[in-house]
Amino acid sequence: MANENNLWGIHAGKTGDASSLFTKQDCVAVGWVDMGDLSQISPDREAFKQKVSQVYPTIKPGAIPNYAGQLFRFIHEMQIGDLIAYPDKFERKIYLGEVTGAYVYDPNKSSDYPNMRSVKWLGSFPRTQFSQGALYEVGSAMSFFQVKNFADEFRAVLDGKPVTVSPVEQDETVALVSGEIEDTTRDFILKRLSQEFKGLPLEGFVVHLFEAMGYHARQTMRNEPSVDVIAHKDHLGIEPPIIKIQVKSSEGTASDKDVSALCGKLGNGEAGVFITLGGFSSHARDQEKNRPNLRLIDGDELVDLILQHYDRFDAKHKGVLPLRRVYVPEALD
């Protein structure tokens, strides 16, 4: 029976470059080469934080406890007899083993991963043998972490017990994985827009977005209040409908007064579009309901348009919003 000690998860670097070290030399290891021999640091978390901040002075303050915590746990909290799970991205298998040795610092064995613990591998298992939730947990973004939610599932596999893996259409984790990736992407886009296109630059971005949507667009003169961009289908911009666009880079709530200012600029055959990174008040939305030639686009809807037309963005704008197409599982009905 698999022991009830802690179960840890570890990755072999972003490109799996430590995979051969793990599986061929029966060990697990972490990098952070510039930290040197970790056994020389006082065995408490604060000492590890101080060392990390000294060695990596340019990292963000929020990352310091993350890095320090991983190293501290690898050396002082992981015990001989604990279990370890290593997802091998090349073989598409999960290696499960038992920790057999204390921490050693051996840069001669591996200059890139000198901080090591010896392991007895108990088996390797195809990923299809595990639930999507278990795979998601060992796919943690951290290099070293504790497996808690699905630890019993990994122990059951080691014991040769059957593991009930839900059909994909019944696995709630499929929706969770897809949802978290989508939410992260949307948050990233809005943050980049608010940081890189504050004020007037967002107007230029909207021009490019409408061009990607198949319109001709241009920024207006700065002395024309409430209208920042003009868009139209014809080359000269003289055939209706003419779209007048107001752009707000604020992440606050646009009021009905803001929207009314745009509507006051609309003539016959003209439509109004109000774009903001934030949201709209309920009274502003009421105006949209009552005006067929008015569209209010909040931050979420702006992201929808960006994702829909991103393939037609030029290199400059893709560079500011670097996105890569990936396929994620979608929950089946």
From TrEMBL:
Alphabetical list of Gene3D superfamilies matching this protein: 3.40.1350.10
Pfam entry (one): Mrr_cat
GO BP: DNA restriction-modification system
Domain of life: Bacteria
GO molecular function terms attached to this record: DNA binding; restriction endodeoxyribonuclease activity
Protein's name in the database: Uncharacterized protein
